[in-house]
Sequence to fold (192 residues):
Amino acid sequence: MELTRKFRVTGVPKTIVNDGSIEILGALPEDAFVRGVLGLPEVDSPPQ
Amino acid sequence: MSLLSDQDRQAVRERLSDIQQTVRLLLFTQTIGAPETAGLARQVLDELASLNDLIQIEEVNFVLERDRAAQYGIEHIPSIALLSGDEDTRMRFIGAPAGYEFVSLIEAVVLAGTTDSRLTEESRALIAANVTGPVDIQVFVTPT
Fold:
């Protein structure tokens, strides 16, 4: 409970990287998640 | 009494059959004053271990073995540290891995028991190129 308060978890899944420097809310595809964790910009998908 | 139905046990057994090496689950708990979730965590782990001989459970007393708890960075109980053989995978579960968390635990155990992370080559390249120091990842799967 204290952890959810510390990181203001109101929706799950919520991913906290390095004690809060990066926060990711929700489940993402692998490439987006890896980029998010690494703090890299998203790559736009090509139009279909 | 089993926590899982026979059908679910079989499904989990099949998923765990991918494990190739011993996975040790260290359950950090305490005898006196433990929260209710500690008993549930033990039940869940025992159920899991009954489905694959390569899964071993070890209970560590959080109060009496403080050094060991510190070694694994354990600050809350119940907590579970996953080891692949004797090697710390650095994966941790905080709280009882019941409900939806059980699926996450199964996948973590399979990950610890195999040598393939199943990440794409692109992901591996990004990680290799951009990780220059420790990265701590905490995933909250329940809000409580």
The radius of gyration of chain A is 13 Å. The helical segments of chain A are 2-6, 30-38. Residues 2-38 of chain A form one domain. DSSP finds two helices and two strands in chain A.
